[in-house]
Recover the amino acids of this structure.
């Protein structure tokens, strides 16, 4: 099978890793990642780094050195915010995402076989993954969300540890010392650790092809199918064919399977939905809604914020989050694993914050000069100075020393506004695949960034897809099996993938919508009711052994859930 992954962001890179892990090695597959931006400088930096680990964080200065535009100095073609390296500032990877990472990581250079690969659920071989070690070195472990009110009241502490890992007899403070259940990490560093792993894998026997064959530059402009019948009630193709992918420079490539991991403004998604007129017309034309959030790198010691904690502060006019995103000791002795790294480590020099608020218009801070010296404003342009003024007004009255320290910092360093990013979310889609073209990650479900699940869900997509494809491909053999059988098996795998992933993502979507709903401008009564609801959540959680929904999110056993769906699908196939 010739498989093209469009987009070399978090989801594209991890999909490659998961496929290398799961696809039967005796089959003749070709896996290529096409990324719109030139990854050569990053690949070279990885290759030049003799110890085989990601290069030290480059920061914005180095981004300029490698000709990646810094925010505010973007070219007209593509906003800097969409380059794989610098979109966003920091991301949270929760326990469910970390578990996927540890499973899709390569066995490492120590000559381990595939069956000896790390598995954090059992703790087996967890010490041997270079990818996990790099992630743990780069980020800051998060064990707890501290929720409080803008009026200065403490509300609840939410443990990021699944309840099965909490012991009632042990004091919380003791438990926090053991193991890592969540990570806050610079988005740039996480992307670099994944890229480093892809380079490691592509150059080993474990992967397919060398780096040059796997990572290619190319901006996709169109995706075409040969004529086929589309059943508009299910959106499944009744006949699937080879897919043709066209690039900006006019090149065209044929593929048996195209995986669109090209982010929230996905070209692959556009091509899919242009072809298919769903009965629910509104859903078939997904609109991108814009929200204004303003994260940034800053490096004060947040007053009152202990290590290992994220602060989430609720107020009548929005909410505000903050936490550390790196650790002081980047070098742990030996090989750090999720189990042996202490979860309480000194914070490093970077941290992240964000402010979420309600807006009745798509862009609350339009650029003041709409013509921009003759240039039309782009959808991602906004007036950063106006955004800063509104931010100060919104949160200055909040009784929280950490928030006030952040606002002081921003006021004293106006250039920090360059680090502000608007963020986008997208409504849920009615289908994620049409024929042999599939959407994954933000291309199919851009969740609210404050849900803390965007990256973890992208990682879950990668692993679930690889398990589904390998399940249906395993009985086949390249020269013997007819092309049509490969296509039928691909269709079954993609259907199973949707069956397991769509309800799971829907849960996270609903959860993030509920959380987002708490950001409106409220009366005092509604504000008090919100605090009461948050407190009640904490009390019920303690009484009944943890927030059930959160537990279902964190302790999710993805491989078992996928296998359950595959069994049901196989049984249905046999009976039909
Ligand atoms: C400010 C911000 C904060 C966030 N915070 C969190 C958080 O705390 N926790 C969390 O889990 N998630 C968070 N997220 C979301 C998270 O970053 C994404 O959900 C995750 O990175 C999904 O990755 P992706 O690979 O699907 O998309 P992307 O990372 O957007 O990658 C898409 C890739 O495709 C490439 N591409 C685009 N178009 C084309 C084309 N036509 N041809 C070829 N290549 C193309 C792009 O250059 C890019 O490299 C945040 C996002 C933002 C913006």
């Amino acid at each position: 099978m010739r498989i093209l992954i469009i987009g070399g962001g978090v989801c594209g890179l991890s999909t490659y890793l998961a496929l290398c892990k799961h696809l039967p090695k005796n089959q003749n597959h070709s896996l290529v990642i096409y990324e719109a931006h030139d990854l050569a400088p990053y690949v070279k930096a990885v290759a030049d780094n003799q110890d085989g680990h990601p290069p030290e964080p480059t920061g914005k200065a180095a981004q300029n050195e490698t000709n990646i535009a810094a925010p505010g100095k973007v070219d007209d073609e593509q906003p800097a915010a969409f380059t794989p390296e610098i979109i966003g500032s920091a991301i949270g990877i929760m326990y469910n995402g970390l578990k996927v990472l540890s499973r899709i990581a390569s066995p490492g250079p120590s000559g381990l076989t595939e069956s000896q690969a790390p598995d954090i659920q059992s703790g087996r071989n967890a010490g041997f993954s270079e990818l996990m070690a790099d992630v743990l070195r780069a980020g800051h472990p998060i064990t707890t969300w501290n929720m409080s009110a803008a009026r200065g009241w403490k509300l609840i502490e939410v443990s990021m540890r699944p309840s099965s890992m909490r012991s009632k007899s042990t004091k919380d403070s003791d438990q926090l010392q053991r193991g890592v259940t969540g990570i806050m990490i610079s988005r740039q560093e996480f992307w670099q650790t994944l890229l480093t792993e892809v380079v490691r894998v592509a150059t080993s026997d474990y992967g397919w092809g060398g780096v040059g064959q796997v990572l290619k530059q190319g901006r996709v402009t169109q995706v075409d199918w040969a004529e086929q019948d589309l059943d508009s009630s299910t959106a499944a193709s009744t006949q699937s064919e080879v897919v043709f992918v066209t690039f900006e420079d006019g090149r065209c490539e044929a593929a048996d399977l195209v995986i669109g991991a090209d982010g929230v403004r996905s070209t692959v998604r556009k091509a899919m939905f242009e072809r298919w007129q769903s009965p629910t017309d509104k859903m078939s034309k997904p609109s991108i809604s814009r929200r204004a959030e303003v994260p940034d790198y800053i490096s004060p010691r947040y007053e009152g914020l202990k290590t290992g904690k994220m602060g989430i502060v609720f107020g009548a006019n929005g909410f505000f989050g903050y936490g550390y995103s790196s650790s002081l000791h980047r070098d742990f002795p030996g090989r750090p694993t999720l189990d042996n790294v202490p979860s309480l480590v000194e914070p490093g020099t970077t941290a992240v914050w964000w402010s979420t608020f309600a807006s009745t218009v798509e862009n609350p801070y339009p650029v003041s000069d709409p013509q921009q010296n003759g240039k039309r404003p782009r959808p991602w342009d906004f007036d950063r100075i106006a955004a800063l003024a509104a931010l100060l007004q919104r949160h200055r009255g909040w009784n929280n020393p950490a928030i006030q320290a952040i606002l002081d910092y921003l006021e004293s360093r106006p250039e920090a506004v360059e680090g502000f990013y608007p963020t986008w979310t997208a409504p849920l889609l009615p289908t994620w695949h049409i024929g042999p073209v599939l959407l994954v990650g933000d291309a199919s479900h851009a969740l609210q960034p404050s849900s803390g699940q965007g990256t973890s869900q992208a990682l879950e997509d990668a692993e679930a897809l690889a398990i589904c494809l390998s399940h249906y491909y395993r009985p086949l053999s390249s020269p013997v099996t007819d092309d049509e059988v490969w296509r039928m098996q691909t269709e079954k795998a993609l259907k199973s993938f949707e069956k397991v992933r769509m309800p799971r993502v829907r849960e996270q979507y609903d959860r993030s919508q509920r959380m987002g709903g708490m950001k409106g401008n409220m009366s005092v009564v509604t504000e008090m009711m919100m605090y009461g609801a948050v407190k009640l959540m904490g009390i019920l959680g303690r009484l009944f052994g943890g927030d059930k929904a959160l537990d279902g999110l964190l302790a999710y056993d993805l491989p078992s859930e996928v296998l359950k769906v595959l069994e049901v699908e196989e049984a249905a196939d046999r009976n039909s």
Notes: The radius of gyration is 23 Å. DSSP finds 17 helices and 20 strands in the chain.
